[in-house]
Cadherin-4-like
Amino acid sequence: MEILRLGLFLMLIEIEKNFTFFKIHGQGVDKKPEGILKIDEDTGDITVHGPVDFEKYNFLKLTFQALDREKHEVDTQLGIEILIVDANDNPPKFEPEGYEISIEGSTTQGTDVVTIKASDEDSIENNKLFDFRIVSVIPPPSELEFYLHQVKNIAIISFKGCLDYEKARKYTIEVEAKDHGDKIQLSSFCTIIIHIKDGNNYRPVITGQTGTGSVEERKENVLVKRLQVTDNDSKGTSAWKAKYRIQGDTNNNFRITTDLETNEGLLYVEKHLIYKDSHQKNLTISVENEIPYYSCTVLSRSTTDLWKVETTGDGVTGTEKLGLSTSRVTVTVVDVNDPPIFIIPHKHVIVIENEKPGKYLETFTATDPDGKTCVSFRYRIGDDPAHWVTVDSETGKVSTSKIIDRESNFVKNNIYKVTIWAVDNGQPPMTGTATLDLHVTDENDNVPILDVSTFDICHSDRLSLANITASDLDEDPYSGPFSFMLKDTEKGKWKLDPMQGYSVNLVKDPTVHSGHYELLLEVFDLQSNSAVYNLSITVCDCVDIAKPNCRIRKATGAKVAFEKNEKQISALVRKNVASDTTMEQRFARGNSMYRLLYSLDAGEQLGDYAPHVYAEEGDAKSKFELDAISIPDIPFDPDLDLDLDIQFNTLASICLPSENPPDST
């Protein structure tokens, strides 16, 4: 039993012996569910004092004891099992208890709208079986009837007739689930809210058009017409938004868009029109909505089957949809002065660079597309960045006006581009454009050039070298690979390895000491066109052999000459001069007893280095610390100069009065 009346007599246990009292233990007494059962200690009657939930306890297990009243000893002990009988105490439960959905207004009858589910926890067949039924629909439908189809513990809700957003935007349906209990039937309820989306129940209708309806020829992206429409569907919905189509636009000259605020159709000229091709363009504009049009009408009703209804939608026949609103639009093309057209708008000419000015190149001829005999042209140069060409304004004859240089920055990939204009005398004046490509062929008008002519080489017992690289602005076969040759060089001191290529190595013999050297290098291209370059070589003890740098601390510019006499070699400083090649040549040519030992180009960095007047005797011949020496301007014996030996590299600032200096400035 699942639900029992309190105090209900359950059973009587008879014992043959006349014992004094009885007791019970176990479920329903001192174990869960506690306090349900009690026993009369004198009579042995067991009574019920509370309900038992069948879904939790299908039976109760107890222990019965008969005890001697005097000895309080258990004489007899029995096991008792009490079966619980299920009662209809659980109503069906919906899972979940409520539903809320949205469906399109164009949904057809018989469509499954929503599926609901319920369950019953009772175990007896009648108690756990239940039926669904629709209790109410708010608002009451007129051309519509909701119904459900039950399959076991689920129900599928559908409808007959037609949905109409204009009549009801929402329906609230209450569904009951009731079980089959014998004495009492239990039930529960579920609420279902169905939102009806606005369908396209009304077609858009074109009511008018505004705008000039005209466009000048060759104009593009011009608005020529605005088409007005009405639509009774909800504003802003897909059922209200208009979508326009153009018929009769064979060349795709037009496009039409929708004004998102007003729903108007905006007709544009997308691609320019030509007056002589057609003075007018006749178009047909149709309009529809973003979603298909749909309508539904109830013709008759049935209690067993679906109702008889009539539906209308956007069907397709051929290429035109039936029932669409259309409007005829005429666009007028306005004639304007057309630009001249070149018969051949793009020409190519081969020209040799360095050719004398005045060479004839080409002749351009333009025509009037309007066909007017009174129109004349004048030819002009449009784009000529290097100003190399000229054009006859009457004939269109193009000639060179300057020497053309293939190596100019204006020549790209050996092509120099020129644009020619033909300007008519119409109103307004119009201009046509043609292009002339000059393909410039190369001549051997450039000598090889060195990328770098100043080098630092480390003083070493092994072979030391510097890399020399040459290039030529000319193309093959007037450029490299090049041939390199040293001129007037001490035999065996310097050499080239290899002697041909784009890059060669200048190799220093280990016997070459620290100092500055000037070498003459002649470089030949493949056609023996050559140039001679002065290589400025500085040999020094390097801080980093991998990165030769002999210019860390040097004077801004100085020349030192030595005088040779019969007694000794003494360092006689004649005059402090700025570095220049003229002075160097005068030392070399002016007096045979003088020769240039060291020269340093102006501009080398001295920084804030303070000149000093001392040197340690016995120091190495090459010494960075002696890169600037200052000597007092008071008279002194030149023989004192011997104390300096030959340890210095350069003299930065030396002021000394001298007599009979060499011919110099």
Notes: The chain has two helices and 48 strands. Residues 109 and 160 are 5 Å apart (CA to CA). The first helix runs from residue 125 to 128.
